From TrEMBL:
Lineage start: Bacteria, Pseudomonadati, Pseudomonadota, Gammaproteobacteria, Enterobacterales
Pfam families cross-referenced by the UniProt entry: HTH_23, HTH_33
Gene3D superfamilies (alphabetical): Winged helix-like DNA-binding domain superfamily/Winged helix DNA-binding domain
Protein name per UniProt: Transposase
Protein origin, superkingdom: Bacteria
InterPro entries noted in UniProt: Homeodomain-like_sf, WH-like_DNA-bd_sf, Winged_HTH_dom
Coiled coil: none
SUPFAM superfamilies in UniProt: Homeodomain-like
Domain annotation Winged helix-turn helix: ranges: 95-152
Amino acid sequence: MKIHLTEDQKKALELMHDTTRDSRVCDRIKAVLLASEGWTTQRIAQALRIPESTVSRHLKDYFSEEKLAPENGGSESRLLAEQATELIEYLTANLMHTTVQIVAYVWARWQVTFTVSGMTKWLHRQGFSYKKSMGVPHKFNADKQPQFIETYTNLT
């Protein structure tokens, strides 16, 4: 299958091939470039170690829609926008120590189920991060602390 690409199109595809990190996109770009050089789908499939039907689909997708990226963008959010905003405000105001507590809160509040790993990913996408809380001695007395420091410095 001989296809025609301009020099600008070839340069743009080669630049995209050099800069992209997704090997699936790279395979699609290589298939298009090799087809423009006169390679058959069978030779392209053999060179890229992918099925011939996949090469044909990549070429068809590129020429019908100029599609190079696969369509796997995840799923829709389980929380509505208002619920997500409310949860972010709640978590900002209230400290929750574990993701399990957050999952339980979301279930109790809106009857929406999350796995712990799913909630962790959602929290990271929203900009939250885990910070280990600092322990405070159980016999700590803020009033006696300056007195102790003064006594300790007098010893040295």
